[in-house]
What does this fold into?
Amino acid sequence: MICVLCLLAGCPSPDAERPKSAVETVSLQLKWVHQAQFAGFYMAAESGYYQAENLSVTFIEGGDGIDQAASLISGTADFAVMAPEDILINRSRGHAITALAAIYRRSATVLVAMADSGIIRPQDMIGKTVAASGGSGVRDFDLQFRAMMKKLDLDIGKVRLVSYDPRYEGFYSGAIDVTAAYMTGGVIRMLTQGYAVNLIWPGDYGIAFYSDTLAATQDTIARQPDMVQRFVRATLKGWQTAIGDPKAATRVTMKYARIADEKLQLAMMEALLPLVHTGEDQIGWMKKQDWRQMHQILVQQNILARPLPDLDRVYTLDFIESEKTAS
Amino acid sequence: MKLTPKLILVFLLISILPILLISEIIFRTSRNVIEKEVVNHLVSTNLLKSTEIGQWVHQATAMLEFMAGQPHFRHGVLDVLQRQTSGDDKGADYQSIYRRILDDYLKPGISVGDFIELMIVNVADGRVIISNDSRQEGKIFWDQPFFQEGRQATFVQNIYYSMALRQPAMTIATPLKDDAGQPRAVLSGYVDLARLSAIMEQRTNQTGTEDTYLVNTFNFFVTEPRFETGAALKKSIHTLGVTKALARGEGVASYPDYRGKVVIGAYKWLPEWQLCILTEIDQTEAFASIATLKTTIVGATICFTLFVMLIGWLSAVAITTPVKQLVAATEAVGRGDLDFRLNLGGKHEIAFLARSFEKMTERLKSTLVSKDALIREIEERKQIESKLKKVLTDLKRSNNELEQFAYVASHDLQEPLRMVSSYTQLLAERYQDKLDEKAAKFIHYAVDGAARMQKLINDLLAFSRITTRGGAIEVVSSENVLDAALQNLRMMLQTTGAMVTHSQLPRVRADESQLTQVFQNLIGNAIKFRSGDMAHVHVAAARQNSHWLFSIKDNGIGIEDKYKKKIFVIFQRLHTRDEYPGTGIGLALCKRIVERHGGTIWFTSEPGRGTTFFFSLPTEKSKVNCEI
It folds into this structure.
């Protein structure tokens, strides 16, 4: 019966049918729920880049209380999109997680003040109420704010640091002078609601943090370097495509997005563009000095109990570099 | 194939092929020229603009270096730096120095227009110490290439996305050194990329779709392309032109651009800037003139074709119409309608043909008419001829019968008449004494009558013998014949003293004795009917065609014209026997003899003055059938 169907359907001959290798199923743990934040991955899947690499990729949605590192360590996911500080922290805990590519080479974290507040630089935050502290989900807010104040020799004790409120009610009401936010999230919402704001980006004050970073366990990398290579290659290509055509990327995103608001997703897409594509180097590229600085900040803030002995192994450029030479 | 489509086709073939060939050649040549122009334009645009970019950046760099080299500016900056480091940055002195740097250097530097921001960065920590945009002060650019490199020497950081400006930027940096030559600060400036875009757009606006833009090595737009906004460093482009330029190539190609429209694009890799420059123009626009040319040529060809077809049609019609008329005419003539008229004007061959055709029908018509008439006439004549023949035959027969009768009658009548005459004379002689005078007188009358009758019968016999007993007709000398006649008239001539003269007379074909008789009778009559004078008769002959015309002229009493016919009738007399004796047979005999010879006899006369008798005789050589 199958033969007949094959004949009828004009199936290719067995020789032609035999693939180079069987399609591998891999999974990717996302940092948050489906949204434009991960457009490049969707693009790679929808454009067939993964398929071309003989990969079938399953996306595992993130969310409140989902630990990306745990997914990797448990083997639930082969790859994960996670914060660089989480990689460093897990490393310090003995989990050999390695960064493969910095998707967001610039941090989306930003401190926001109302435009008429007169707060235009960190120095102006002295004596003000800043909403930047919080749990593991927004660890980077607290981290970067503190690092920035320290970098600028500003006394954080003179700042009233309060919990981050994702609804920004205190900020809107004026009770809070400054709030942390993601340029790809909260800021878009503020702007959408018509607020004029000043953005104080820690990156402008010497705090060069990555945001979403693609990572895998050292073990996976060691055992399946070819698979990792193919995954990274397809992923970066997906991001290149997504960045190159934000509108198309948004359309692709709409197949996945939790919030089916294309305008919102497009705004998010446009906000993340300069973070992913800086105009320097290629997408995903990482610098030693950046990792050193991130590491240093974590040590300074006692988030890392002691410096990592093998800092240079926290990230690898092997897969990007070979990709670079390949292209 | 009929003549009309054939002619049109021939006209088309003759004209269209060369037209098409010429059109094609013109089109190809023009297209090459246009294409070359387009390509040259695009390539030169790229060249021009890349040169302009270089000049512009060079100019901005020169300005920055010039500013950094100003001792006053340099010392001011060092002063501010020193005061900031030492914490002496609150006083009025500091403010005045700070303002001076800002107002005398940075702000004027901005106003030149090449930079959107000028700032001085502390070498020690990468912090912005002075900027014309105060919001930028305090920012740290330690890890930025322009700072890292700019500390050592002048450096241009290629276009990147500046988070500080939140827009694409290109930064030029140059060190500010203290008197010891140590770099203490970096003078940096964000160049105004709008100027770059302006350079790109400069010539773009002049044509419809010409578009020049820069693309970086990551396939991202660096300047805004014409048909997109906010694409700089936000949108990537993967066209054939970009791919080739990024492969360090340079050239011109046709490909779909970022809008998906097919363009002619000149691409060029600019190694100095690590960018590629592309100048593109929509193929439709680039080749619009080609399209126009094509339309024009096609239009002209169509017009010409139609014109040629029209000419062909007109020519065909000019030929076929008369031909058709000719065909109709021939069919009409074939049906027998000879009155069909063509009425073709003109001076061409077909008109000539038509006219000769008309002439032909005309002649045909007249020929047919005359033929009919001829046939009718021939038939009439035949009828007449047969009638004539019949009449002639009847006439001959009756003539013969008459002659026979005359001969028999005169011959057979002589015998009893002679008996009557003899016995009457015998009666007179024997009974002369016994008869009285009256009886003798009566007998004399009877004898005289018998004698006259005998004479009449003899005359009649002679008359009839002319044809029934005529001699042979042969060549004779009319002079001899005249002599014989005169010999016979010798007595009469002697008694009357008449004079007969004659001209030279010809030889003729005649019955000699009968011709003698004619001369004798005519001359005898001339003498007999002489007037008072002495009779003079002259005989002459004149040649007339195949006849000799004889004339016997006298000076006698003449004959009145009314007797022209009567005079030749047998036994007709114009005078009484008492005036002139005779039976009246003489001229009848002459007429009959002349007619037997095929001639005619007549006379002209003036009464009292004389008469001329004419008669014709055939010449000796003619072979006229004389006897009828």
Remarks:
- Residues 1-19 of chain A have pLDDT under 50 and may be disordered.
- Chain A touches chain B through 32 residues (CB under 8 Å).
- Strands of chain A lie at 24-29, 55-60, 79-82, 97-102, 109-114, 129-133, 160-163, 178-182, 197-200, 213-217.
